[in-house]
Design brief:
The complex is a heteropentamer, with two copies of chain A (284 residues), one copy of chain C (225 residues), one copy of chain D (251 residues) and one copy of chain E (399 residues).
Chain A: H1 2-26, E1 42-53, E2 56-67, E3 71-75, H2 82-89, E4 97-102, E5 105-106, H3 111-120, E6 121-124, H4 136-146, H5 152-166, H6 181-193, E7 199-203, H7 211-226, E8 230-234, H8 238-244, E9 247-252, E10 255-260, H9 262-267, H10 272-282
Parallel strand pairs in A: 3-8, 3-9, 6-7, 7-8
Antiparallel strand pairs in A: 1-2, 1-4, 4-5, 9-10
Helix pairs in contact in A: 1-7, 1-8, 4-5, 4-6, 5-6, 6-7
Chain C: H1 2-10, H2 13-43, H3 47-61, H4 65-77, H5 88-117, H6 121-129, H7 134-164, H8 177-187, H9 192-221
Helix pairs in contact in C: 2-3, 2-5, 3-5, 4-5, 5-7, 6-7, 7-9, 8-9
Chain D: E1 10-14, E2 17-18, E3 22-25, E4 28-30, H1 32-44, E5 51-55, H2 61-67, E6 72-73, H3 81-84, E7 88-96, E8 98-103, E9 119-123, H4 128-135, E10 141-145, H5 148-157, E11 162-166, H6 167-175, E12 181-183, E13 191-197, H7 202-217, H8 220-228
Parallel strand pairs in D: 1-5, 1-6, 9-10, 9-11
Antiparallel strand pairs in D: 2-3, 3-4, 6-13, 7-13, 8-11, 8-12
Classes of the chains: A alpha/beta (284), C mainly alpha (225), D alpha/beta (251), E mainly alpha (399).
The complex binds adenosine-5'-triphosphate (2 copies) and magnesium ion (2 copies).
One magnesium ion (MG) binds at residues 82-83, 203-204 of chain A.
Chain lengths: 284, 284, 225, 251, 399
Amino acid sequence: MSETNNEAVRSRTTHEQRSLQDASSERKLAPLVPAAEDPNRALVELTHVEKHFGDLHVLKDINLRVTKGEVLVVVGPSGSGKSTMCRTINRLETIDSGDIRIDGKPLPQEGKELANLRAEVGMVFQSFNLFANKTILDNVTLAPIKVRHMPKKEAEDLAMDLLARVGVDSQAAKMPSQLSGGQQQRVAIARALAMRPKVMLFDEPTSALDPEMVNEVLDVMVELAHEGMTMICVTHEMGFARKAADRIVFMANGQILEENTPEEFFEHPKTERAKDFLSKILTH
Amino acid sequence: MSETNNEAVRSRTTHEQRSLQDASSERKLAPLVPAAEDPNRALVELTHVEKHFGDLHVLKDINLRVTKGEVLVVVGPSGSGKSTMCRTINRLETIDSGDIRIDGKPLPQEGKELANLRAEVGMVFQSFNLFANKTILDNVTLAPIKVRHMPKKEAEDLAMDLLARVGVDSQAAKMPSQLSGGQQQRVAIARALAMRPKVMLFDEPTSALDPEMVNEVLDVMVELAHEGMTMICVTHEMGFARKAADRIVFMANGQILEENTPEEFFEHPKTERAKDFLSKILTH
Amino acid sequence: MNGFLQLFSQYDVLGAFLVNIELTLWSALFSMILGVILVVMRISPISSLRVVAGAYVELFKNLPLTIIMVFMVLGAYAQLKLSFSDTFATNFFWLAVTGLSLYTAAFVCESLRSGINTVPIGQAEAARALGLGFMQSATEIILPQAFRGSVAPLGNTLIALLKNSTVAAAASVSTETSSLMSQMIEFRPDVIIQIFLIFAFGYVILIIPIGMLTTYLSNKLAVRR
Amino acid sequence: ACGADETGKIRIGIKFDQPGLGFKKSGTYVGFDVDVAKYIAKKLGYSEDEIVWKEAPSKQREAMLQNGDVDMILASYSITDERKKAVSFAGPYFVAGQDLLVRKDDQSINGPEDLNGKRLCSVTGSTSAATVKEKFASEVQLMEQPGYAECATALFSGIVDAVTTDDIILAGLASASRGKLRVVGKPFTQEYYGVGIKKGDTKLAVKINNAIVDMIQDGSWENAVSDNTKGTDYTPDVRYNPPTPNEGEDA
Amino acid sequence: MADTSNSVLFDAPGPKGRRTIRIANWVAGIVFAVVLVLILMRLHNPPDGENQLSWELWKPALEREAWTDFYLPGLWMTVKATVLAVVGAVAFGLVFGVGRLLPNTLLRGISAIIVEFCRAVPVLLLMIFFWRWFAFAGLPDPSYWAVVLALVLYNGSVVAELVRSGVGNLPGGQREASLALGLTETQSLVQIEVPQAVYAMLPAAVTQLVVVLKDTALGSIIMYTDLLQESRRLGSMYFNILQTLVMAAVIYFIACWLLSRLAEWLPERMQQRTAAPAEPEPLAPIAAGDASNVNQIAVAKEVEELPFGGAPRKYHVHHRGTNASIRNWRRTRYEQGYDVEHPETEEQHDRGAGKPGTPQAPDPKLSSREHEHSDHGTVFKRGDNIGGGRTSLGAKPKI
Ligand SMILES: Nc1ncnc2c1ncn2[C@@H]1O[C@H](COP(=O)(O)OP(=O)(O)OP(=O)(O)O)[C@@H](O)[C@H]1O
Ligand SMILES: Nc1ncnc2c1ncn2[C@@H]1O[C@H](COP(=O)(O)OP(=O)(O)OP(=O)(O)O)[C@@H](O)[C@H]1O
Ligand SMILES: [Mg+2]
Ligand SMILES: [Mg+2]
């Protein structure tokens, strides 16, 4: 079934993609990702990361290395620590021990440097988290203006560019609550991209969406992957994982149990936990 | 793709089922359904049922007949009146005209008779609706004690029996909020079963659940179907529909548009609406 | 300083607080009773009862307590001859209690109703679907949950009542704290700030524990959903 | 106070809420205090539209004079030694006495001694009721109300039997009562109503005293009293009235 | 708030039920009418005193002069005090509400003490004190400023709590999203959280306006010439004080009632601009420093009624966001009793007891609740426990 599922995703994607490309050919858009330099540089590197919530050991000796341009998909049962790991990468969650490096530099602990680092790591949340008191456009321009001190005009141009790219430019003046979930999530992606991040983190970006809207968001992500963005995605969308991932990481109980290519992982999971998980996730 | 989907459901189900049966073989459990008598008796019969909400015509001339032991699955787009129909059957919603009979008797309008009838129709809600102020065990024993005047001891034995059957007996002393959605829904099924209902109504029992928990609930429902329970299920789980349904009813716009066997319905939907609906529902 | 201490032997500050506490307790009792009656009327299926209770609540919620207190004396007592005792002090005390109770009952009713509103309709439907009757589902499922949801708003109402008891001054109760504070200020305007702080902290000391207790109870009893 | 141009005008503090003495009605001010104030102002060289009336509630009178909010106050302001520490007085222009107001048909009360076992109303914060209780009738029950109108209403409806305060105020109430109330007419204290002025302003005090003398002599004083107590058979205590204004002339 | 109180208790009545209801309806209606008539008769013909319904008494209370000389000037004074008090209260509330959220412990503590103090002292005491104090100090218009200042302090403290619970009620995601974009904590507070808290609190602030308006009537006790005082004066001219007070009451009622309607009309509009629940009932937390009781009331808000009074279908919300407590998430839940056991011990327990084949839910309670996950697009984000780790006074566990 996963095969067919995947096919369905693919067919829809190419369709959507075409129209997106149509849109982008009308205006000249800047590339989303800074030009690649050394393809083997580690952009994100976690070594021996440990994290407790009180008595609960949520991250156990996590080691992970994401190189430039790589698309990493993290899967695993609920509560296995996927979100926590994702959030430690831009220090929304502190770690107890271990080391996290972004683009070779250790994660700053606080203050301006931390804010600057966070600006380089884009994050997209399950629940969109658009700023409810700002219009779509303001949502996207806020950080460039406040953090990057970009002139308002320039920030707005950039924002309209990005909104066009994710296909919601016509909604720029609306409030977030007036958009559908899928549109909101695409705005959230544009908002993160506006900071020209080196790496993007996605924490279950589609699981709060109505089924009909899942694909419009996945399409944007697929395109982003194609453009060479470095991405870490926590997701349950196996079709997307198969299609876009360079590598799949399987977590359970706070540990990384498997790391493999999509083909290998889906066809020949090595651990019992992964087999069990796949059987659960793929049956309906 | 639906084929594979279906297969997956089947394979998992049998696996789970086996283990459920293992569990039940450890203790001797009473059968869930009173011994069958006349297989062709109509347990639930709706004739010319009409219902408005203000100007909105939600049920238009509904005619439906469910015989003993039959498993009826109701599908249809959102807002088509599936839930409303389901709820009229035990008069959580009143009807404007038409006739509803349960086991040959017309639906009482109020008072003790209505309560008694409702006791014979089990209902499982989308949002579980476990009594938040009672423990799991009390949730299940409440109605047998209060309505059926069963001695406490006996009711508790019965409840533990049923909880074991749905696999949550270890949680009996907890409060509902401490259980996962899947567990809560299974308790809700046990609670309905504790009244030894003649027919069970399920209103989208899995759509408020996290994906991983859907199957644990569907498994219980499948087993129930196998034991011969008469069931009316509103659901979007097509795998379940294919596997367990004797008949599928397709509703749209308050009308019953199609009634057919699962095979016929899925392979050769007769109406455009059904085709359209199926194409939407089966793509992801 | 000596004069200041002398002020307290001369004026019965504790006694004044006692008057306010008594006013509060009696009014709490009566407003609770009336509030329950109102809420029952308000949620009953009988529309005339609903209308009357609704009108009552709207009326008292939107009138200044001061006016109500004045009406108690000039309207209820002077015109309708509602009298509790031939002794003026007692009579005005009870008139003040009546006024406070009438006023607070509207808020009690709202608190209880918001408690009932915290019960999701699904709970009632589940109870009905299992064959529980009206009394059974009310006593077993709805009211226990509704009561727990009312704890916090009721606590807020009680605190408001204690503070409002000072308005009894408008109903000629002259022994309570605000009247006494006025008298003391009249007598010793030079220590006005100290006098005020004494009374203010009296209320802080009374109210903080009520608040803590309410919070504790409402968290403790809260229905987890 | 609200930004009206006050240069070249005289600001006089009066009560706004005492029928018969100082009362705001249809945008104008009426009452005995008002009449006296107008007369004084005229003698000081201010026409009627050069007067700015200000409300002077009992508890704010000293402060208003000290701040210079008003030039003088005529607001049933009794001359006392305590008050003279903070302000000066001119006058007195009237000697009031504490008296009782009762229902017209109630013949049982003819003096403060008759109040034993009866109910008496006074306004919050005044000492007049306490005086009655201490000196004349220890068995009396007291009720405090925020204003005299409330007391009078209570008297109407029978929940109290008498209202006590200065006789001229009671007379004002009685005159507004459509003949249903009467003043007993046996004042049992003396209150010397003075014109409150800024402390030590002897020059002004002399001018005011002269004006009051004039007023008494040309009969305007008599007229003012009778105008404002119309409909009652009230007469001021003749033992003290009209008074000799001699306050505040020595510094 | 969706009013489900009726449908929650009563089943839709059948024919017999409807008849009983109809009869009861008439009986009750007649009883109330009779009571009303009795009261009016009593007023018409009291044992002593005058007929309170006579036109002679009502006319002076209703005529033109009464309005131009008494009610309208009084109302103006009332409005003057109300408006200034509201403006002051909002300013006070914003300053100290934000003060209670600042990272600095000292500022937070001071704000907390001020707010809690102002909330506990009866407004009347404040008024009397300021009135006397200002009079002694020789300020002009002491009663006006006393009324305004007392109302500012009390209502400002309520607004402060509304701001705080508004910020606390925001889903944690709003703050996280701004941090993730590289904004600093203070920027996030100023740009994102406080504006939304203000939108969320606006309806409640309008409700609070009703309280302010009503409380100005206390000013009459300290001789402020507001509507109540003016109508008393009018009444002392014709001895129809009851009538004039009734008129004052009617004016107060209408003004407050209109404001209440406004407060009910606002939330829908405000909800578009905030991720916190915007509600007309001020859900100011009760006790010193603890705002957590908000969540019990919030549950009710999830039930939204359908247009024709039937039962709403989808209200199961398993995940709620909370902003204030994000750092203390687990401890607060533990304190609130969601977790009877520590998750870890329980998992082991589960595993030990779990029978083979029992569908093993991966630690159900915690995981399912933490993440905001909403049913079908409508994202309900509700405050779960407010003020958990951020307040100095009440953040400690209550037991
Ligand atoms: N702030 C917190 N405080 C305490 N415990 C937490 C907190 N956040 C997460 N947890 C716990 O840590 C564990 C890992 O959580 P995490 O959210 O990372 O899981 P996940 O893999 O993302 O799950 P899901 O698929 O449900 O999103 C869970 O047991 C969760 O209950
Ligand atoms: N109590 C009510 N008052 C008014 N309209 C209602 C009420 N309940 C349902 N409706 C409307 O009646 C129609 C049918 O609703 P119903 O819930 O039966 O649909 P459904 O098929 O169950 O949809 P879904 O798949 O979304 O659950 C919808 O348009 C709904 O908005
Ligand atoms: Mg997660
Ligand atoms: Mg439905």
